[in-house]
Amino acid sequence: MVAKNLQDTTTLHNGIAMPWFGLGVFKAEEGAELVQAVKSAIKHGYRSIDTAAIYQNEKSVGQGIREAIVDTQISREDLFITSKVWNADLGYESTLAAYETSLNKLGLEYLDLYLIHWPVKGKYKEAWRALETLYKAGRVKAIGVSNFHIHHIEDLMESATIKPMVDQVEFHPQLSQQELVKYCKEHEIQFEAWSPLMQGKLLDNPVLQEIAGQHNKSIAQIILRWDLQHGIVTIPKSTKEHRIIENSDIFDFELSAENMARIDALNKNLRVGPDPDNFNF
Questions:
Q1: Which of 53, 163, 224, 228 has the most other CB atoms within 10 Å of its CB?
Q2: Residue ranges per domain, the chain?
Q3: CA Rg, the chain, in Å?
Q4: Which residues are part of the catalytic machinery?
Q5: Residue positions in the annotated binding site for substrate?
Q6: pLDDT, tens digit, 9 for 90 and up, residues 196-252
Q7: pLDDT of residue 280
């Protein structure tokens, strides 16, 4: 089912509803601009906010969430808040401690989704055991991974008792990860895209320009619509109110099968971020 509006959700394999569309805050600095961006997103209908410990902006995200709840009269339960444990904290006790630190910075009582940020070899299994502990204790609504290839997930599942509910990875028209998308669908793991707009590197692509012209939409809107029609949760980043509104204005048109295929054909297996099999940080 393709999302019909900004509040539409997909159901994770544990029954939790996750919005198809959200606000990412990667590289958004702590401060008034980010607080306002989070408030603007929620005011304009966003219900999902995605942050991470390493972004060092959880305090501003949390402030924006709390102020938006007061301003809009929506409840915390209507929001879906994600954060991630960083590589330096992967380990059983250290992951549990990192979760508490994130909650304290956000000023929240629980998270809707907590992810292992990167598959650091030899460390992610103990971190996953901590996520399972948090989940079983009702401290977090859903748990998942980020930047995991198929072999990482399969390795994790050799010792895991709970299957990840989400895998959040780099995904855009030049990195369409078709095998991983297929694997996640077959195993009921929700695929989620980070950097869906390839950090602005696709804005002069002639195929996307042509399709955008057909629909009188921006290239960003075409790409984000392509995500949704592929059944992929997407979280474009912006701190500008007009862009936050524009990014979400993608529910009044549909891409044809032909145009979906043309965008699919842009894949070059090209990354803007590190390869999870070959990173050092």
A1: 224
A2: 9-264
A3: 18
A4: 55
A5: 117
A6: 999 999 999 999 999 999 999 999 999 999 999 999 999 999 999 999 999 999 999
A7: 77
pLDDT in tens, 69-102: 999 999 999 999 999 999 999 999 999 999 999 9
Tell me how many degrees the CA angle 217-271-214 measures, rounded to the nearest 5. 15
Q: Is the pLDDT of residue 2 over 80?
A: yes
CA distance 32 to 64: 9
Scan for tokens 């029954």, then name that residue: 15
Q: What angle do CA 99, 100, 105 make, to 5 degrees?
A: 100
Selected from 3.20.20.140, 3.40.50.2300, 3.10.129.10, 3.20.20.100, the CATH number assigned to the domain covering 9-264 reads: 3.20.20.100
Binding positions are 117
Which tokens sit at 129? 């055991």
